[in-house]
Amino acid sequence: MSRTWSTRAESGGDRAAVRGIVLAAFPTPAEADLVDALRADPDAWIEGLSVLSVDGSGRPAGHALLTRCRIGAAPALCLAPCAVLPERQRTGAGSAAIRAALRAAADRGEHAVVVLGHPAYYTRFGFTRASGHGIGVAFDVPDEALMVLGLDAGRPLPGGTVRYPAPFGL
Q1: What are residue 80's phi and psi, to 5 degrees?
Q2: Inter-CA distances, 106 with 12, 99, 112, 150, Å
Q3: Which of 10, 132, 141, 162 is 20 to 30 A removed from 1 (C-alpha atoms)?
Q4: What is the pLDDT of residues 6-29, one digit of tens each?
């Protein structure tokens, strides 16, 4: 099993592969349907920020998606969903896709990224508790689960309530 991953942005021919990865990684099709809905939302989708990790044969194994959200009035990105084929989990495929997506976002001049997830996992990428930066959500989540990452250390993070794209239904 490959432990070295290449990454690339999703292309038009990757939709079925992305859907297959997300369907395999989650117990229901809700997350795969979310990816499709985000892809169809011109206010959320940002070309180049849907990233795949691929093995040495070019087969996709992991996926990370960044879409437009807002923190208060400021544009930001949300990282969700992230998925890896079950047989490729714990091989670095997910981490490779996330790191590549964050690099692509930074290269585009994006600044703030929020994620709702497991702190033990996302802190390895530099995410910290969002509440410490005056960032929250309008629904109940454990404080430690909402995290934020600044992609430009020279700019302060915006404060306020995260507004997710409409397909999230939040």
Answers
A1: 175, 140
A2: 23, 11, 9, 9
A3: 10
A4: 999 999 899 999 999 999 999 999
Give the tens place of pLDDT for each residue, 105-152.
999 999 999 999 999 999 999 999 999 999 999 999 999 999 999 999
Peptide bond into 75 cis (omega under 30): no
Query: Are the C-beta atoms of 1 and 88 separated by less than 8 Å?
Result: yes
Name the amino acid, one letter, at 35: V
Give the side-chain half-sphere CA count within 13 A for 153: 1
DSSP string, 93-141: HHHHHHHHHHHHHHHTT--EEEEES-HHHHGGGT-EEGGGGTEE-SS--
DSSP helix/strand/coil, 21:
helix
